[in-house]
Amino acid sequence: MDYDYLIKFLALGDSGAGKTSFLYQYTDGTFNNRFISTVGIDFREKRLVYRSQGHSQRVHLQLWDTAGQERYRSLTTAFYRDAMGFLLLFDLTNEQSFLEVRNWLDQLRDAHHTHAYCEDPDVVLCGNKCDLEDKRIISEQRAKETAEKYGLLYLETSAATGQNVSRAVEMLLDRVMRRMEMAVDCAMLPGRHGGPKPGAQEANVILHPPHSTCGSC
Ligand SMILES: Nc1nc2c(ncn2[C@@H]2O[C@H](COP(=O)(O)OP(=O)(O)OP(=O)(O)O)[C@@H](O)[C@H]2O)c(=O)[nH]1
Ligand SMILES: [Mg+2]
């Protein structure tokens, strides 16, 4: 194993919003104008180094790409429980895809009680296709208000030009890594299950792919 963390993210949102294009842009730096709708589920991978407070961690990112089409819904929602964070995409030139954001969040919440890592996972909302400014229907203000209402981070992205694509993934990674660090800190508090006894020396924590990333302690 030549990485410190295996992190699983999942992209969701309406068919045509640009999930597959976004992930290809992120992992390969390429973009294809042709629309080949995803059948079921797919994934892409990327290695990166996460730096925080002077430490470097080697991260293996697994990016699950779900089909937006309704007919695959029962298959794709089964993958929600293993994801540590979510990229929720809508198309800035398509009002319906924006209105569906609420439904996608409801489906995420339905999966919460069976979620393997956390009851309240981190979500970055991406208003995609921001390169198509002349076709834009959803204003940045409107999208930001929605993101705020649902407690999501928001970025305008373009899978075509690459604008904010890496930033969206890195923002999500930062949230997830902070959550994990908090979970470890909580576990190490005196008197907590698995933590050092009062008076014990501070332990050296070696971090491996987490089993519990929920930072609410
Ligand atoms: N101009 C522009 N076109 C985009 C962008 N992202 C995706 N597209 C185009 O939009 C279409 C749909 O993109 P996909 O990435 O296949 O959409 P998807 O969300 O994966 O769709 P499903 O697999 O059906 O759920 C394709 O023709 C892409 O080339 C973008 O940021 N800008
Ligand atoms: Mg797709």
From TrEMBL:
EC number: 3.6.5.2
InterPro entries, sorted: P-loop_NTPase, Small_GTP-bd, Small_GTPase, Small_GTPase_Rab
Keyword Protease annotated: no
Presence of keyword Oxidoreductase: no
Gene Ontology cellular component terms for the protein in this record: endosome; membrane
Keywords: Acetylation, Disulfide bond, Endosome, GTP-binding, Hydrolase, Lipoprotein, Membrane, Methylation, Nucleotide-binding, Prenylation
Protein location: Endosome; Membrane
Domain of life: Eukaryota
Listed GO MF terms: G protein activity; GTP binding
Membrane-topology descriptor: Lipid-anchor
Protein family membership: Belongs to the small GTPase superfamily. Rab family.
Protein's name in the database: small monomeric GTPase
Protein source organism: Cryptotermes secundus
UniProt lineage: Eukaryota, Metazoa, Ecdysozoa, Arthropoda, Hexapoda
Gene that produces this protein: Rab27a
